Every structure is written in structure tokens, then in C-alpha cells.
Amino acid sequence: MIILEINYSEDGYETQIADLVENEFRSEGMPKGYMENFVWSEQDYKTYLIIENNKVVSHLNLIKRNVNSNSGGPATLSVAGIGNVVTEKDYRGKGYSTKIIEKVKDDIRDVYDISLLFTRRVNFFQKLGWRPLNENYIITAPSERNEIKNITVKKYDNTFFEDIKKLYHESNKGMQFTLARPDWYFERLMNNVINPKNIALFLDGNELKGYIIIEPREKERLVEIREVCAQEDQVYENIYSYLCDLCRKHDFNNIGSFIPSNHPFYRQLEKGKTIDTISDINKAPNLFNENLMILPLREMTIPEKEILYWRPTDHF
Length: 316
Description:
This protein has 316 residues and is an alpha+beta fold. The protein has 8 helices and 14 strands. The strands form 2 sheets. Strands 1-2-3-4-5-14-6 form a 7-stranded mixed β-sheet. A 7-stranded mixed β-sheet has the order 8-9-10-11-12-7-13.
């Protein structure tokens, strides 16, 4: 058994890695060819492999990120994101996933501030030191209030890209665990990942005052808030009115969100009638049906209450 640390593009491994990861996650909707077509950032990730007889039998991605912090220390925290932990079925039960994770833990300790990952295998990662972060999925019925005042609503076009980027950074300063998105990441997210039809801009003349990214959930008959930012409470009020109108227009019954109670938009959601608060994320109608877990890597206090983080718009 050999543990290797490589770049994904190194010759001889791309096809094996793609087959291993895609076979593991195909039941969750990952299509064939996903890994081949997915563009990783070479400077921001590493791949760890376990090789037996020239065969890739276990795999892990380490993704480098920074998140905003209000913990009383640095303004940002460095994050070692863990993803795509997979062992070939015929090689399971030999502790390979544990070995590759322990190798990564040795490499990231005292180099990063924290490690974060999304997983359904909570018990497995708890044994390795990670712990779940508190989170609630809130479902609220839209109110009857629907007047939008002194603002123009417009669909996204890329002429507002720089304004959205600026507003995101200004709105998320001091918000715990929101992703400190570098320019290349923000550009890829807005232009290649998010459907422009799901972005609404709120303008005063030509000045961007706020925006919201949504995901219509036909099966659950709700509009899910993926991301929302605004300059002031009045704009958040207009955004909420827009959501209520949207629900009525498409005959959706509810609005769903991970927004915690310290976010300014939460006050708008309170004006609706909250019908459910789901603490078990696996029961939430969310695209990423997984638990968020944390591993502190330095001596620090990580507050667990009212955490705002990048899910579900960002997923490492």
C-alpha cells in the first residue's frame, strides 16, 4: 500500500479517479463524465490516493479555502476542506479511508485553522475528530404582504458582476464562516455554476442595493433561498416581498432557508408563519443532503451558535 499526494492532472490517474468517484456518487446524481469536465483550481486543491498493485483503491480531495470569522481573532480563518472520500468496494473494511484521512490530518494540523466537510457518515468522522455544527433548516409560509417600494427588480446580467462581488464582501464581513471568495472563484460561481435565471437584482436607478439567489423546488413546492445580500433593512423587506410574490405566481406554498437568526433577512422571514424548523439536515429538502462537520486544528474558540456559512451556494 502506497499513499500518494498528487495533482489531479498527473498522468495515469485521471481515469481511475474519475471512475472511482463517479461510481460512488452515481446514486446521488453525479453523471458519468462529471470528474472529467469539472474544472479544479490547481493552486487550491490536492488529491490523496492509496495505491495497491498500480490500482487507485482510495481517494480524498483536500480543498484550500478561507472563511470570514467573528471569533475575536483573525478576520479570516484558513480552511482545509475535505471532499470525495471514497474507497473501492472490494477494498473496504481494511481501514483505508481512516489511513488516508489520518495522513491528511497530519499534513494540515497547525497549517490550517479548521477543517470542514459535508458528509452523511457522521459517526465515522466523529471517531476521527470532527464534530457536527449546529444548523437548522427553516420553512416558512409567505405572508400576504407583497408591495415592493422604491426599487426595481431585474434579472441578472454580467454587467452587475463587480457590483454583486462588492456587495457580497461588504455584507459578509463579520459573518461567521461565510466563504471569503477569491475573484477567480466568484467568477466561476456566478458564470458557470449558478443559473442566471435564479438571480434577482434589486436596483435603485442603476445602483445595486441587493440580490438574491434562489432554487425553485418543484417537488417540495417551495422556493429555497441559496444566498441573499442587501445594503439595508428596507431592501431586505423588498426582497422578502419579491419572494412572496414569486411563491404566489408559481403556486408554491413555502420559503425554505438555512439562514440563522443573526442574519438581517431572518427578521423578514419571521413575518411569515414558520411551519417547521428541521434540525436533522438529512430531512431538509436541500441539494446537499449532508451534515456539516468541523475539526479545529489550532487552539481557538469556535462559536457554534447562529453560524452563517456558505452552504448551499458554495460547496468547497
